[in-house]
Amino acid sequence: MSILQEISQNVKNIKPLEFNILARQLNLIKKELRRGVRKPFKEVIDVSMGDLHMSGLKPLSFIRQVLAACLYPPLVNSSKLPVDVRQRAQKLLGECVGGSVGSYTHTAGIPEIVHSISEFITRRDGGAPSVPENIYISPGSQWSIMNILKVLVNSESNPRTGVLTPVPSHCTTTSCITSLGGVVVPYYLTEEQGWQLQVAELQRALEFAKGVCNPVALYVINPGNPSGQVQSRKSMQEVIQFVSEKRLFLLADEVYQDLVYGDENEFLSYKRVLAEMGLPLSDTAELASFHSASKGFIGECGLRGGYVEMVNLDSAVMKHIHTMFSTDSCAPVLGQIALDLMTNPPQPGDPSYPLYVTETEHIRKTLAHNVKIVPEVLNSLPGFCCQPVEGGAFAFPRLYLPPKVIQKAKEMELHPDSFYCIRLLEEAGVLVLPGSEYEQKEGTFHISSNKF
Amino acid sequence: MSILQEISQNVKNIKPLEFNILARQLNLIKKELRRGVRKPFKEVIDVSMGDLHMSGLKPLSFIRQVLAACLYPPLVNSSKLPVDVRQRAQKLLGECVGGSVGSYTHTAGIPEIVHSISEFITRRDGGAPSVPENIYISPGSQWSIMNILKVLVNSESNPRTGVLTPVPSHCTTTSCITSLGGVVVPYYLTEEQGWQLQVAELQRALEFAKGVCNPVALYVINPGNPSGQVQSRKSMQEVIQFVSEKRLFLLADEVYQDLVYGDENEFLSYKRVLAEMGLPLSDTAELASFHSASKGFIGECGLRGGYVEMVNLDSAVMKHIHTMFSTDSCAPVLGQIALDLMTNPPQPGDPSYPLYVTETEHIRKTLAHNVKIVPEVLNSLPGFCCQPVEGGAFAFPRLYLPPKVIQKAKEMELHPDSFYCIRLLEEAGVLVLPGSEYEQKEGTFHISSNKF
Question: B17 pLDDT band (50/70/90 cuts)?
């Protein structure tokens, strides 16, 4: 009998991933294919993850050349690499302690890189000032979200701390909240209106929460994952008014900011919209904005680099956030460098610029093409209804399943959409994720698929 | 006034780093030196961190060549790189999803790398079997420790969960325990006997703990940090007997396993010693062993790769550990690859082997030399007493401070040894860490310095 009799209820409450069931099946099928077992398909098409390179889109040469030269400095002198690549690598190595990407950095990140991210934010946000001291680099944005939640969620409070989170949304954030002893307060995006976030629904969720927990924060993700919705300035202004009136902390997950499609859609950061709303809001509403090297055109998920910028936080709170970020070592140095390169890409006139433009344009065009056809194709299939896709990595079509399928799934103790995904994998060799992994309105079913 | 009124006591309890005070002073001094301000030194010597590359020791060519080729695959065809480097890079790229180090991997790590780590462990431990399913790769070993502690420490239990931890030890582990709402139960290493771990002291600490909390685990670090002590087989057997009798989970931090000096010292893993103690212990004592790409000869702290191997855990508990490791994305892929290269270095006959041996021998000799002279020099200074150093990255000499210094420090609201470290930095340009950062016996003072 194990020593660990009393495992924390918070840990037990974390929902195991539906993906685990599919991953087991996927491994089985791959093994069978290798053994030569005949199937209706020759290889599995995996569109379950928001991962550009997994989907066959190529890493950007500039990014990889600079990273390789930082890792193996003799390349800084190689005539085979463009001169701006070599200069950039040399500059970055000069910013590493001991001139090596193998050394630890400040726990907040290499100061020069933090500074350069801060300048990027200011440019992006039309001049709204950004302060390097408010930025922390971490091994992916999720790690930053976890650290901020540790400060937000008071594990000893009674009633427990609540965080409003969208349905659907990826389960990593809700798992974090649960593991810290917080309460996930769902608010539903309006599918029929392209997965819009509506303040009336935030209001409803908040009222509902008040009997159950002490809501302190609102988590939004824009562009949406998996919804694919892009918020308008008006919608964001309403959200900011709401959090300000209700005294909620705003967690703005903006990792998909590069992936916005169509001329009528534009990414605006919450920080910018807030700044442009003027006083007194612009000086008081508290928010944290997250970004990542994983989700833009560079798509470097495997390097694990993300950051958070804090806006309007009390210095007494920042002290604790600083301590939280100091309890572990720094973020991976190559992930930090990827953030530097992502936020400061080659400029016109640089030797690497033409290739950089060609490569990013290829990705942009591929995505624009897919974003158009994914809803078209899905809506032409019986039993599917897909909202237009405005941004992000995924489409999240609704699936109308016949009662017999739902019954069969229940008999197998599976979510009906998980049952559908397993059958789709077995019969067509296509791996998508079930809506139940993301939560969805009771009685509705969905699948999520990337558009790469 | 901030929204965040009720910050969790667990977060508030985390002790801010003494290092922060020194870091501020360090930045000031560096700025002054750049401005041309005259000081008794021309540059600061930083020996505060266990970081090979920061200290000027060079990264290993083989490691960096393979990593660079994985990042920038055209190098796989470069005749400038040895053929075994290119083959290895090609093999590793074949194990990455989509052939890119920019893709996500399994949350436990790339299966082939986990497998190769498992084989390394079996070889290292004289054949004691290792199972890949019990191994998880993470962004540094500290992250693994945190995840295991999340399962061990029950934040809702009353009395709270206790974890026995050595004094001195690095503050990251104690911060983890505190942040989870656990109780740090100190046990003191015996300085006068070269910082030995003594079971009688474990016994005392456990008895003491019983009135305060519910002790469930013992954390040991061998080779010691900052103590520099290496445990004998006999000492480890006693610890295993103790945890088994007292039903404690053993957290064995073995990240310094490569750094053992002198012919009479040898690293033995807790898993090996346990296996060789035979039944029934070998089948029942529960432990987790941690290792890292940061602390061996490769010294790749910045890549953030570590792993944990679980031994004898109940499958019901493993399920929760698996869930914990699934709540965030994978470890940095290049950190994973560094682990593969560290645990499977070039072999005799490989083109890279001669250079690999030359480079590791240089590091080995530098360390062996320093390990000999560090205690000699320190013990020749008035007010210092340094135990022999057997392993690890640090020496942790005792510092005898005159009452006037202690009084002065108190007036400045500083720990006396922090006061000493600040003065050493200001007057000699040498950065070491104060013993108060690591905890120490009441009324004693120390500094920690690396030996690179």
Answer: confident
- List of E strands, A102-213: 135-138, 161-167, 183-188
**Residue among A105, A156, A301 minimizing CB distance to B9:** A156
**Helix ranges, A58-166 (H):** 61-71, 83-95, 111-124, 141-152
Mean pLDDT of chain B: 94
DSSP calls for B219-232: EEESS-TTT-----
pTM of the model: 0.96
- Cross-chain residue pair A71–B68, CB shorter than 8 Å: yes
The one-character DSSP state at A344 is S
Interval A166-201: pLDDT, tens: 999 998 999 999 999 999 999 999 999 999 999 999
Phi then psi for A295, rounded to 5 degrees? Answer: -110, -5
User: Closest partner residue to B51 among A17, A103, A247, by Cβ?
Assistant: A103
At A329 the pLDDT is: 86
Say whether residue B210 is in contact with chain A using an 8 A CB cutoff. Answer: no
Contact assessment for residue B138 and residue B147, using Cβ atoms and an 8 Å cutoff: yes
pLDDT of residue B299: 96
Interface of A with B in 71-110 (CB under 8 A): 71-72, 75, 96-106
Q: What does the pLDDT read at residue A375? A: 92
Radius of gyration of chain A (CA): 23
Q: What residues of chain A lie within 8 A of the CB of B113, using their CB?
A: none
Asked if B304 and A331 come within 8 Å (Cβ–Cβ), the reply is yes
Instruction: Please list every residue in chain B whose beta carbon sits closer than 8 Å to the beta carbon of residue A48.
Output: none
Contact A329 B98 (CB under 8 A): no
The span from the CA of B41 to the CA of A22, in Å, is: 62
pLDDT at B1 over 80: no
- Side-chain half-sphere of B313: how many Cα atoms within 13 Å? 26
B124 to chain A, any CB pair closer than 8 A? The answer is no
Longest dimension (CA), chain A: 68
Residues 6+ apart with CB under 8 A from B153: A8, B161, B163, B177, B180, B181, B182, B216
Q: Hey, is B217 helix, strand or coil?
A: strand
Torsion angle, alpha carbons of A29, A30, A32, A36, to 10: 130
Mutate to test the interface with B, among A1, A2, A3 (most CBs of B within 10 A): A3
Residue range B219-257, pLDDT digits in tens: 999 999 999 999 999 999 999 999 999 999 999 999 999
Burial class (CB in 10 A: 0-12, 13-18, 19+), A412: exposed
Query: Distance between CA A152 and CA A45 in Å, rounded?
Result: 40
The answer on pLDDT for B309 being more than 90 is: yes
Judge residue B451's burial from the number of C-beta atoms within 10 Å of its C-beta, 0-12 exposed, 13-18 middle, 19 or more buried.
buried
Residues of B in contact with A20 (CB under 8 A): 326
The angle that helices B333-343 and B83-95 make with each other, rounded to 10 degrees, is 130
Rounded to whole angstroms, how far apart are CA atoms A109 and A399?
A: 44
Which chain B positions have a beta carbon within 8 Å of A92's beta carbon?
none
Q: Which of B157, B298, B302 sits opposite A6 (nearest CB)?
A: B157
Q: What does the pLDDT look like over B167-208, one tens digit per residue?
A: 999 989 999 999 999 999 999 999 999 999 999 999 999 999
Q: Do B51 and A104 touch (CB under 8 A)?
A: yes
Q: Could you report the per-residue pLDDT of B429-449, keeping only the tens digit for each?
A: 999 999 999 999 999 999 999
Rounded Cα distance, A356 and A62, in Å: 7
Tell me: pLDDT of A33 over 70. yes
**Strand B45-46, strand A398-399: pairing:** unpaired
- Phi first, then psi, for residue B287 (nearest 5°) are -145, 160
* CA B37 to the chain's CA centroid: 37
Q: How many residues does chain A have?
A: 452
